[in-house]
Amino acid sequence: MLETHGRELIAVCDTMVALGNATQDGSVIFAKNSDRQPNEPHLLIRIPRKRHPKGAQVKCTYITIDQVEETYAVLLLKPSWMWGAEMGANEFGLNIGNEAVFTRVKQGPPSLLGMDLVRLALERCRTSLEAVHLITDLLAKHGQGGNCGYEKRFYYHNSFLIADRQSAWVLETAGPFWAAKKVEDVYAISNRLSIGSDFDLAHPELIEYAISRKWCRSEADFHFARCYSNQLFTYFSGAENREQACTQRLKERRGRITVATMLEILRSHEPKLERKGPFAEPSVRSVCMHAGGVVGDHTTGSYVAHLTEHLDTYWLTGASTPCISIFKPYWLTDNDIIWGEDQEEQALQFWMLREELHRLVLQNKVEDLDAYLAEAAELEREFLDLVQALSHEELNPQQLNVIMKQAWHRERELVETVVKRSRSNPGQIRGSLYFRHYWQQQNKRLGL
Known about the structure:
With 448 residues, this protein is α+β, with helices and mostly antiparallel strands. It has one domain: Penicillin V Acylase, Chain A, CATH 3.60.60.10. Helices cover 34% and strands 21% of the residues. It has helices at residues 114-124, 128-142, 206-212, 224-228, 231-236, 239-252, 259-266, 271-276, 344-362, 369-388, 397-422, 433-446; strands at residues 3-4, 7-8, 14-18, 28-36, 42-47, 50-51, 57-59, 64-66, 70-71, 74-79, 87-90, 95-101, 157-163, 168-174, 177-182, 186-189, 201-202, 298-307, 312-316, 328-330. The strands form five sheets. An eight-stranded antiparallel β-sheet has the order 5-10-11-12-13-14-15-17. The longest helix is centred in the last third of the chain and has 26 residues, at 397-422. It is globular, with a radius of gyration of 21 Å. The relative contact order is 0.14.
């Protein structure tokens, strides 16, 4: 693997938002793929609203900070070993996703990870702008830093896409420095700084620091992304291809964007991979990222949030590899569909079953993959149509819980059936010698 100064070059994530002036029904739609090391479980966790005693503290991934008097109910999609989350939502419809970005600012000591900042903002904020202010305040007080890798070391700074039911902001950081921009209609971020000189809010010393480092000559010459980006790491991350692919699709469908649009984008591959197939070679440039190359990771979790005046609906896979996974509806009602912090073992088993399906596909053990994909697509379309057809009278928690239980049960039945039928089948990984060796080692480490 390519390493520089102890950092392993990996790419992580794509996040998108479409505001009401760009969607078909006037809602806000938020979506994200989390691309991480392929054996790193990605857990679905639900945490209720909590009160905390005066003087309480909270242990984040690496450091302990002061707790607040009350934390809000949150839905988290998180790497199994971290306190924080890659993406998630809270009871007020606030949604946040983070991206690794590679900058010229030196890495600091272990402190808050970008994932910690996502969770802290979801637990403490109600609006997108409030979250921008909280995250930047926490950066000023505690800084960001620490290993973000699961099996291998990985250090980076963070950008965030933050949305509520009315608005969205992009917040991009480089060590303690940052710039923020309000979204006008659609926006996509990937593993690179995207804000130029058109920011709405910024660190008070952002431009002065760049000039002092001779990254620009004057304020008139300042461009955040150009000044602060580490161009080498950013280039090899494949971020430009993925970000442009997302942005192009969103702009082409502006005014007609739906949940289905976001699902399609999250599952998309670069043309080369579409021609050759995604299970015989890697692609760091695909939004649905497939690992197996010298650089790049794998999509380990996917998420779409549909935020409306009457109801927030979340579409979750609880699985890696969205091109073979089923998005299921979820609501923040009183339900036991997903797991609390004390039930991470159950959340892990949920992810592992679906990851076994992915590895069976890679090993070409699934006899009729097209038949499974057709059945999965039909099931997901049924869920989408059912949710779209809900009347206001059917938006009560009891009815929503019935729909959820049926949808999640039927998805599990299908996955379990295919996995059990495929385990004993002959098969082998295809592709280059490196690709085959890569996945053989991943399977061995995961116990599959």
